Amino acid sequence: MKALKCACLNSKLHIIDIESTLLRALPGFEIVGLASVTIKESVTRVKSALAALHDFTLPAMKIIINLSPSDVKKDGSHFDLAIALLVLLQKERFDSDYFVFGELGLDGRLRSSAELFSVLLFLSTHVKSAKILLPKDIALRASMIPNFEVYAVENLAQARDFFLNDEFKISCKVDATHPIFDNVIEIAGRKFVPNLHFKLDFIDIKGQERAKRASIIAAAGMHNILFEGSPGCGKSMSAKRLPYIMPPQSLEEILLASAYESLNSNSSDFSAIRAFRSPHHTSTRSSIFGGGSSAAKIGEVALANGGVLFFDEFPYFGKQILESLREPLEDYKINISRVNSKVSYDTKFLFVAAMNPCPCGNAFSKNNVCTCSDKEIAKYKNVISGPILDRIDIYCAMGEINDGDVPSYSSKQMSAMVLNAFKNQIERGQSELNGKLCDFDIAKFCTLENAATEILSKAITNYHLSQRGINKILKVARTIADLRDAKSISKADIIESLSYRMKR
Questions:
Q1: Looking at the structure, do residues 269 and 346 belong to the same domain, yes or no?
Q2: Which of 24, 49, 151, 277 could form a disulfide with 172 if both were Cys (CB 3.0 to 4.6 A apart)?
Q3: What's the pTM?
Q4: How far apart are alpha carbons 398 and 117 in whole angstroms?
Q5: Is 486:425 a contact under the CB 8 Å cutoff?
Q6: 181 lies in a domain?
């Protein structure tokens, strides 16, 4: 029996072992192991490609190909090459420690399939390193995936020579590095890719110092934030600039972000800038959370994983959509169940919401008169429930821009502050940023000075804080302490953290 490795992507990635054997029986070619019609059709393509080799004759035996595990449905024309090679090399000794992908033409030429790059991206999130044989038309792009050793061939004959001729194998290797991996930084033995380009810059926002401070804290600890203010005060501008100052991504985060983007039928590329997703308030629930009539498709909350999910005009989103945010914001997972598939996606994003103080937007204005009644304002704000507000760490009220306001911090300066706080978190041994710490890690990493403990105790009594509210205050205070390189949380840190709490 001979074997090679491949992979398929349906509700999630599955690594498939392709096994072959030849039996003394009536000549035939059979594929078993829940293969789709696409894979079943590969028998014809494989036979034709083998016939195109002048020095090979199909054995007069029964060929059986098994796709293991047999209880997983497999699909994709990229299984062709591995199946053909197992027939072609049945009597040869070869290194089977390879993932082999490629669709065969009838003349033996190789090409990539539409979903192959998505499969490779998800494979890169499952294995630390892998040796991969691919068609030449996708090899250069695949070689930019950091943990892959990629080899390229143009046809079935070259693929056979690859396994039998060591010198030819060396000539098939493809080496390429994506430009963003040229500037990797190392923190506590882990590699991260910082953003060095600031297409959108906080220097464009005049004044709003409190909002900028809140943005630094939110970015440094991945804390959910709500901006409230009059139209034109800079809420959306601040939200759109947050991805540029957020902490650097690990290699794993970049690969997963690109893999998720590939599921959205987009041409994915590696980026040092974290994802930014901003669905319109008229978007459907399935487009935001994922869904579909039969297959489970990815939604905005999963595409925002590792980056920013921005809800502008927050109260205008449907009640059902807002309440459905609870689980992704709390559990950092979204589970989608459909008739033919069940899939789970990570949702560790920084949630940013922006809203006006009232329907007309002038409640905070010193120059314009608010025309809204108390009833209209209450109706406008009551769409956002207490449990949703409980999941927002930072509330920032923004005033109008004044003539005397001037630019202050640039995104580059803010990014440096965030990076310093990020280093403190990683070097402390945290696996998650402060905003995503679990209860156990909060107790471990959020150590308070005596004066800070007293202030927090008074706040719990005066504000009737829930346990979730207490944890939010501690996590924000931990980030504030990290921004000033402090090992423990001080009284001033708790007070500033309390100042970002929304009063209801």
A1: yes
A2: 151
A3: 0.91
A4: 44
A5: no
A6: no
